[in-house]
Design a protein that fits this description.
seven-stranded mixed beta sheet; alpha/beta; Phosphoribosylglycinamide formyltransferase; binds 5-O-phosphono-beta-D-ribofuranosylamine; phosphoribosylglycinamide formyltransferase activity; EC 2.1.2.2; transferase; GART; 197 residues
Amino acid sequence: LSVVVLISGTGSNLRALLDAAAEPGFPARVIAVGADREADGFAHAEAYGIPTFLVPWREFDSREQWGAQLDAQLSVWNPDLVVLSGLMRLLPVSLVDRWSPRIINTHPAYLPEFPGAHGVRDALAAGVDRTGASVIVVDNGVDTGPILAQERIPVLPEDDEHTLHDRIKPVERRLLIDVVQRIATGDLDLAAAAPAT
Ligand code: GRF
């Protein structure tokens, strides 16, 4: 299974996927890594000799034009699966419609709880004693797509956003790697998980 990963930041989840994909027998390989800004996570791709591409948000006049360029880049690689892992940007409808359901996203909360860009902060603010991590199919909502995997994670009284996110990310990575593996082996059928609307 060929995979393109899109990031915006440190790419720690990307790093974990690259490490897993480097294991002999892992049924998926990351063929390129893209970002909407100069992402620190590019270093992980470069360490594995994997091509990176940049579609800088700030160089475009609209989400649609940015998305069209991103779509053009994705089409060059023509992956079997697109993984958003820390891409902090909503994709335009046209791109999601073209790639869904072969486009999945990781989220640091127990969806549908706490969707959006601040899931960890929102869980803390809500004072809940547990949150979670989720892997979903990307649809045209904000973290509203079909849930492929999720797991509960405790919130500790002394948690701040950093300590909680650091407890969530390892779970997120494990779920992501497992989902990618199950898609690659055919155990998980995205078309069945996300019926065309
Ligand atoms: C991840 O928790 C991701 O789900 C969220 O932002 C974080 C990105 O972390 N959207 P990293 O860039 O993979 O380290």
